[in-house]
Amino acid sequence: MKKATILFFLAALVLLLTACGSGGKMPSFFAQPTPTEKILDLSGTTWEGETSNGYYFYNSTFMADGTFKYSYKGENTVTDLTNATWIQEGKTVKIEFNNHFADYTGTLEGEILRGTATNVKGNSWTWELRLVK
Length: 133
Description:
This protein has one helix spanning 2-18; strands at 46-51, 56-62, 68-73, 77-81, 84-89, 92-97, 102-109, 112-119, 124-131. By secondary structure, it is mainly beta. A nine-stranded antiparallel β-sheet has the order 4-3-2-1-9-8-7-6-5, with no helix packed on it.
């Protein structure tokens, strides 16, 4: 009886693997791995966008050395500042400005980077940047 049960299961396995013309491959109803999503490496890319507290960032580049070079318009127009650094961990991006006077945390969604920010004064706001090049 044991031999018959084992033979039955082996026959069922062989049928499972070959009945659909799979040529020994696993049938398509088995879970297939999903392709790994490609995440944009920000190094060397330039962005523009705005904050909910009235600033417009332009010509802002994630430099390969970890520096965030940026320009913005708000109460004043300021260009080519390099007092910010950035790190990217997958889709999560963190930018700190002026020795952590303000910290930005965002999520990369294709060619859009958006998130929240806080500063040492306790203020908070949202922001969104769009890929330029």
